Amino acid sequence: MKQKTIVSIILSFLMATTIIACNEQSKKDETAKTDVPKSETTPLPAYDPAMDPVKVEAAFNKVFADTLNVKLHEVTLNPGDSVGMHTHPDFTLYILQGGSLKIYPQSGEPQVLELKTGMGFIFPTVTHSGKNIGSTTIKLLVSDIHRPRS
Q1: R_g of the chain computed on alpha carbons
Q2: With 70 as the cut, is the pLDDT of residue 140 above it?
Q3: What superfamily does domain 49-145 belong to in CATH?
């Protein structure tokens, strides 16, 4: 009988320890959940639809799709072609046919880009103009990504 009492006391102690440990773990989990930082909501730069590249440089664009806030279009610039000042929202760029392109940012110094076929880029919102300064036709596949802005 004495052995049964000792075993019962030990089992009770182990059960109580287990319940207390589980309760402490639950409190830690709750604390961890409330300490999770909220996602950053950095405001995006303003986007002016009148400066849409497809509107401003319509003669050089072929629109493939405009759905789910993504506009996919091909830009073809023959040697000497220039595109006026326009604004892209966040966008990707894939070079279908390379060449030399001079970019004139709205603010900053002009840059000459040597685009090689197969290159790809991801850019944030930008306002610029450009000119094909090479001797080859440049073809670009552009996807403008329109996200909610404040």
Answers
A1: 30
A2: yes
A3: Jelly Rolls (2.60.120.10)
68: three-class secondary structure by DSSP: coil
pLDDT of 1 reads 64
pTM tops 0.90: no
Listed in sequence order, the residues at least 6 apart from 111 whose beta carbon sits closer than 8 Å to its beta carbon are: 102, 103, 105
pLDDT tens track for 36-53: 455 555 566 667 777 888
Alpha carbon distance 16, 5 (integer Å): 16
b/e per residue 131-144 (b: at least 16 CB within 10 A): bbbbeeebbbebbb
Residue extents of the structural domains in the chain: 1-36, 49-145
Say how far apart CA 145 and CA 100 lie, in whole Å.
25
* Across 66-81, average pLDDT: 93
Give the span between the Cα atoms of 140 and 50, in whole angstroms.
Answer: 21
> What pLDDT sits at residue 45?
63
Strands of the 99-105 sheet, one edge to the other: 82-88, 126-132, 99-105, 111-115
